[in-house]
Amino acid sequence: MGVPAFFRWLSRKYPSVIIECTEQKKIDETTGKNVYEDASLPNPNDIEFDNLYLDMNGIIHPCTHPEDKPPPKDENEMMVAIFECIDRLFSIVRPRKLLYMAIDGVAPRAKMNQQRSRRFRASKEAAEKTAEVARIREELKAKGAILPPEKPKEQHFDSNCITPGTPFMERLSRCLQYYVHDRLNNDPGWKNIKVILSDANVPGEGEHKIMDYIRKQRAQPDHDPNTQHVLCGADADLIMLGLATHEPNFTIIREEFLPNKPRPCDLCAQIGHEMKDCTGLDMEYHAQAPDIEFGKETKFIFVRLNVLKEYLEKELVMPNLPFKYDFERVLDDWVFMCFFVGNDFLPHLPSLEIRENAIDRLIHLYKKCVYKTGGYLTDSGDVALERVEMIMRDLGEVEDEIFRDRQKNEERMKARNKRQKMERERRPNFDMIHKTQFAPTAVGQGRGPNAIVNAKEDILRISKMAMNNTALDSMLKPVGSSSNNETQDNRGVKRKADNSIVELDVNKQEEDDQAHDEVRLWEDGFKDRYYESKFDVMSDNIQFRYNVALQYVRGLCWVLQYYYQGCASWEWYFPYHYACFASDFVNITGISKKFSKGTPFKPLEQLMGVFPAASRQHVPLPFAKLMLDPKSSIIDFYPDDFQIDLNGKKFAWQGVALLPFVDEKRLFKAVDPYRKELTLEEEKRNQLGDDRLYVGIGCKDYQLLKKFSETENDFEREFPISIDGMQGLAILSEENISIGGTFPTVIPGLHDCLDNRVVTVKYRDPKYADGFIFPARRLPNAIEPPKVLKQGIDEGNPNYRPHIGFNNNRSQFASVGDAGRRTVNHHTGNRYFEGGNSDRNDSNYRKPYNQQGFSGGNNYQQQNRQNYQTNQSRFSNSYSSVPPPQGQQQQQQRGYQSSRSAQTSSTYTPNNQQNTRGGYSQWRSDRGGAHQGDRGNHGRNQSNRGGYQRYDSEQNQRYHSSRPDRVQGPPSNNYGGAYSRQ
């Protein structure tokens, strides 16, 4: 969903929502692949999930064109990567009833405009990147640099092919059908589950097909209201969609986001530098180590929506309302207000930016206005426009103030950046010496006799030259290297362009931004300038402003219905590139909220509506001609180039692509004469299809469906089914493999699926009458999940102890493993642990607690359980008659929450709760204890059974879901160290 930074905002504000997934796997030494534990065993996350839903496009894209590792060599490798990703997710979640795989089909017209923008951008960026790669490659070749062979043109992967109607999506569907048959026949973890595959020929976005399924199952009388749902996907709108179901047990699983992940260079495929800084391959490195080793496998995290609801329930308390308080209704209003900040169908209001706490601002206005509105904003997808107008009126009154504050903040940011740049130029660059000196280098790969030198001598020489105002360039080369050596080894450090050039470019960019900002929202008259600049209308055309606001309000109504009732119209879309102002929401009460349902595009029609001409190879040839022929009646739909309006942003991807909107009537009229030229295969790709339901021999009602598939002859008759609480309609499928038959492999190197025991039928959701309203309410007999947040205690309180993991009855706590203790001791010189640089002769030294301490993890934990009440006194009972060392006394005086944070910078200013002498340890006698005392790039986040720690580089804080008060101070940008779960 189009809410940039929404997940970051949410995870910072509500840290206990997120926990880390626990996986049980090992590495196959022969293949290097993951081998997962039998998924039929109990879930290691201490919870048993029922249904796993996969928003498949969030899996397909990173598997086919990953950003942090080399891409697959061909489509076969892509398919295998997708299989492995599903295997991993299945091993983590271990669903017991249903696996639902949903691929994006044809989208509503409101979404197609965004898809069109994305695909045109992707094509433009790919063309620019290809030209840049060719230019830099020729320059490096002229200098004699070694580069990997250039990829053949046919090996370049166009990610635009991940769109309904392309040959790639047809092959993907066939591969997934093979995958499902293989797992249901051979994997014991899949034995008892049902599988639904909704491929690209089934209309609708993947996540909304999933929501339609859940919504229609909830409305069935025998639905289990305590079903455990897990939805996989990285889009921010999945959180809002999950809340909109009102299911008590709904969890999102997604990849953990790690900023600044290393990306391979597009030229040499090595990490550590960008393409513009590439100098080619190291000759010895190229000969001896052609395979690049990349970072660790990305972890998955759980986003617990029941915990998010706990936060919101505390935050949205409104006492003494003139009507009955209903948190479920308030929750729907919160979801609705998030739409104003951004979504996939409407541009966000100019005055609302998520990074400026726009949601908090709306919540404040909502809580203030609700006393005079007389009721809630929404009801099961219906919007009370008169109440929305009151909130927008209040927001409009402070819009000018918001714009002025934004400009002041931007000016302060620019001044700070300029000041920091000047400070960096004045001090010597020790960081480069440190990184290049200790960059990982295989034996024999150094250059010259002095590849390994004394770092301290380098630093002293650089310091002297810096004081003499001497350039540092020569000092950044290895000792003994020639001044003409242009192939200096910079592996392990990200190479930068000349600082002066960068500064000139930045300053020039800042001047250009100022010069091209015609609107100047922070100055009087901004509204007139906005409409003149963005919409090209005169300032006195007030009716036009009302028309934009009218369409925006209708868009809000459409989006809310889409979330709560399904697609209200396949044809409606917002016909402008920009939004109106909040102050333009005037007299909106009478705006119509009715829509014409219409029908979805067919897949090939959508391709013509969203593809640029550069991706015409995925379109049938008769249609593709219309993209290039100058005489084509729709040639204006496919501009070779287009403008991107930064609209006050810094990066092109944040800007607005000013593409012409597609007139669907003109489009259909243009392609109609060419439909008869389509091949049978192309006609098949252009059809709208049904979901597929697969059941294995261990599934309930297997015999019923087996008999149905063997005896039924009518391929149109709908057969009602009820399988383990799932309702729906089954239709005979032409793709059903007979029992005992063979599903041949579709990927070379994989085995055929022999002796088939899987039944395949077409599946349709239960039907409801036109106009049926799915109530957005908690179902009767739904059991509230156990509370996770401590009532009456704020997370900032030092005594706060949130529960980590899913099982509240299980004693869960975090402790430091042996490897973690050794790492901490080595880098901090901590004398309160065994090993490291401890001074055992110090007369003040006394091992905390007892001789077992951390040297025996389980014994330590057992003792702390036995002496839990005694140990509540923490430091006061941790020592006998011998007083603690001075550093420990300072800790006691400042509070046990004091911690020496991990540091990666050469300069550091401690806060008022940190020991300025550095490197001290923090002890926890509460349920297992833990140590935090790292000074270097160590100190991995720790949580038992999924506790998750976030690093906040902007706010100078760390959040920890299991111990929010444990770590304070400047953040670490490195994830290192080793911890163990006890």
UniProtKB/TrEMBL annotation:
Keywords: Exonuclease, Hydrolase, Metal-binding, mRNA processing, Nuclease, Nucleus, Zinc, Zinc-finger. It is an enzyme of class 3 (hydrolase). Residues 858-872, 887-901 have a biased composition (Low complexity). This is 5'-3' exoribonuclease. GO terms for cellular component: nucleus. Its EC number is 3.1.13.-. GO terms for molecular function: 5'-3' RNA exonuclease activity; RNA binding; zinc ion binding. Residues 475-502, 817-982 are annotated as: Disordered. Its main location: nucleus. It holds the Pfam family XRN_M. One of its GO terms (biological process) is mRNA processing. InterPro entries: 5_3_exoribonuclease, Xrn1_helical, Xrn1_N, Xrn2/3/4.
